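Q: Is it fine to ask for two folds in a single conversation?
A: Yes, each is treated on its own. Send the first.
Q: Here.
A: Result:
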Amino acid sequence: MIRNGLLTISRMQMHLPNHIMSAFEQTINVLIKFIELYLHEPVTHDPLLLHNALTVLNHIACSVDGQEKLFIGRVGVIEIAIEIIHRFLIKKTSCEIVEVAWTLLWNITDETPENCRRFLEDNNGLQTYYDCLELWSDKRDLIRNMLGLLGNVAEVKELRHHLVTP
């Protein structure tokens, strides 16, 4: 059922983007529910489901700005992306899912200082960055996405002090 729902949302997003955007909040909430089910059900699901849900969230994040990006941050997408990254850090395995999670974080922090703050201060994002850099320093695309997010943080004057060590 989860797979079919994600496929439907993916198809709508690709072929009828206005329909997805007209139900923006509902779409985000459904995607979050899919991901939470994936992460917290005792049943093992196909990792492609998680990848697809994150990819759709990322496409939506690229299509919005302002209040919509703030909404994405407020409803817990930052926390979910970091939880996913932490799961792979614990396993010490990297994959496209980690890359998509960082891409999503990069996109929802772009031009959105509150989401940058939420990533950095509320979710210990800098430590997540360091942990990923230590484990996956050879993954160029992943590092690019991580640095893109830090670039967004660096654009927020009030947060720059987090990026400098005395």
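Q: Second one now.
A: Result:
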Amino acid sequence: QIMLLDIVFSLDSVITAVGMADDLSIMVTAVVVAVGIMMFAAESISSFVNRHPTVKVLALSFLLLIGLSLIGDGFGMHIPKGYVYFAMGFSLFVEMINLRLRKAVTPVKLHQPYVADTKSTTASKTV
């Protein structure tokens, strides 16, 4: 299962590295580092993402932003990488603040659901 995730994430890393870097050595380094991180930290990353589903949305929005940047470059509409980096950094900063705020708030304890006593209501109907 980890090897399958490595393949998926390495393909994702290749697409991201090609979209965000101009130098081949940076692309190769990014892919190698991403695969290395996934090999050693896949389980802890997976549990973190499962505990915080908004991180999934953030990662998908990063992929969407990079994909749109690549499509724009393909059509000759260059988007400066500084804008993309700033948008990603700002959204990551906001998500970190949200995670901290959610962690600091004590969860609401719900009461037990009310269940009607069916024996007393059926006995009163038969009388």
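Q: Anything structural to flag on that second result?
A: Two points. The chain has two domains: 1-47, 52-107. The CA atoms of residues 72 and 78 lie 6 Å apart.
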